[in-house]
Each structure stands twice: as C-alpha cells, then as structure tokens.
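Today's session is about reading a structure prediction critically. Students often jump straight to the picture, but the first step is always the sequence itself: look for stretches that repeat, for charged clusters, for runs of hydrophobic residues. Only then move on to the predicted structure, which in these notes is written as discrete structure tokens rather than atom positions. Here is the chain we will use throughout the hour.
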Amino acid sequence: MDHAPGGPLQDPTGLYAAAQELLGDPDLKGLPMLMGFTGFADAGHAVEQITAELLREGTARTVAEFDVDALIDYRARRPRITFSEDHLEDYSPPRLALYALVDGLGQQYLLLAGPEPDFQWERFARAVVDLVEKLDVRLVLWTHSIPMPVPHTRPLGVTVHGNRPDLVDGISRWKPIVSVPAAIGHLLELRLSGAGRGVVGFVVHTPHYLSEAEYPASAVTALEHLGAAASLMLPTDRLREANREIERQIADQVAGSDDVRELVEGLEERFDERSADAPQRSLLAAMSGELPDAEVLGAAVEAYLASQEETKDGDADDGHRGGAAPAD
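Below is the predicted structure for this chain, in token form.
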C-alpha cells in the first residue's frame, strides 16, 4: 500500500496509511464527513457521478488511503487498462481514500469514497471509526441509490435513516420494514452510531427504467440532500446541465413509443395518488413548496454560516467582558 503524503500515522487495524500533518491538523477537526461507495445499489450511477464531481477540481488532499489489495476482489471487479496499438498503458487501480475538500463557499469537509470493500468489513469499519474519532467527526452522511417504480417526471424521492431526528423525521414517504442485502454503508452507520457519532443515510429513488444508465438527476438529488444536511454548498451545476440533455432524450423516447408513454403515465398516476395524502418535510423545500435552485441554496447556506459566526462573536464578546448570562 502506498502511504498517503506526509508518512504513516499509527493505524490499529493496519488497513490505512494516513498523512500525519493532515490527521493532526486542527482545521480538519469536527468537520462533516460524506461517504459514498460504488459497487452496491448505485442506480443511475449516482455515487459514481457524485464522487467524480466532488473530486473534479483536483484540490482534494488525501488524509488517509486504504489498502485495497486487502479489501477488493480484483477478479470480481477487474480494473481497467488501455491496450494502445502495441503496448499497455494507463492502468487504473481501485482507490479507497479519505479526502479533505472545500465547498463552493470555502468551507472544508471530508469525503470517504471508493469501491465498496469485498472483504474484511468489520476490520474496515473499525478503521473508519478510528479515523472518525481521530478527526472528531460529529456528523457522517452517506448516500446510495436504488431502482424504484417511480416516474422521471416527478421529483425523486429520498428515504432517510440514521440517529439524527432533526435530519430524518418527516422526510421519507417510503417507510418499509424489510430485510435487505446489507452494504458497507449500513454496517458503518451501525458502528458509527454505536460509537456515539451522528450518522444519516440518504437513499435516492431512481426510476427503475433508468437505473442502468447514467442518470444525473439521481446524483443531483443526493448532493442537494447531503449539502443541506451538512450546511455545505456542493457542486451540481454541471450535473444539472447534463440532466437537461438526458431529459430531452427521454422525452423523445417517450413521445416515440406508446408502450413507454403508457408506462410513464401509469407510474405518474400511482405516484400522485400515493403523494396526495402523504405530507412530507423536506430539507430543501422553500416556503412555496418549490425546490430552490443552486443560487438560493447558496444564499441560505451563507446566511446560516453568517448566523453561526455572529453567535460565536457574541459568545466571544461575553467572554471578553468577563460576564456570563444570568441564570434563570
């Protein structure tokens, strides 16, 4: 395993190498952490698109990198390599790492991303909990996407779960009790919750007939919820533009096929019937009930951060005056 920049820092599990100067950086303490793993329930390639978008600017700093040779089954998910005329080049090994990133408003956050481990889940979970505790992460947010019988012409639904009632209660329309195949994100949610850390998962409902294709709307929906929950301004503009072209292509296909049109209309009818009597709280909806665009979301986050700074300044002034608020 290649060590992350700055040399290794002691890892009790032996699964990761960390950059000592970053893991010990006080500016990286207490930040929100996002998680996304490819290889499980990635309908619409949502997690793949999210990871690519967040890492696109090239400003990510590697805080820790995991030993993928100990975690990944290469024969089940073979890495890509390019055969170029008469030689091989551009071997792309899998990478599972924890990054430090900056959002559109200059706020730092952490991202744990890469392929879902095939092996040693409990050991990997211990390693993640260890990193979370070293960085004093208070809130962990993760996402994946599942195929659902819903129309692309309606806002994508999101099922939310976790141990933060302020971010979970009243948001999900779909509240099943069902046994499902577990993902590493599920195990991490359990272990992080047991370690006393706030953790919330967002499951995007992607139209089942689009689940095998790259569907930017799923990634946008996930990024909106992750950003709202963590008070971050995450990039969605490029994905929104890509989705406009996808929507045009879908509209052409629907118009050109009676069978497809009947399928979508039937899903719309059932969706509207079920939604009519299901009031739903949203982390994103404005007072009008419409979803705000990126500019409105940015303004809201800026206002929130400004209010936090004012609170801190007020507390500092009280401390400088040597006074404390009178007891009730």
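Discussion point for the tutorial: Confidence is low (pLDDT under 50) at residues 5-9, 285-294, 296-301, 319-328.
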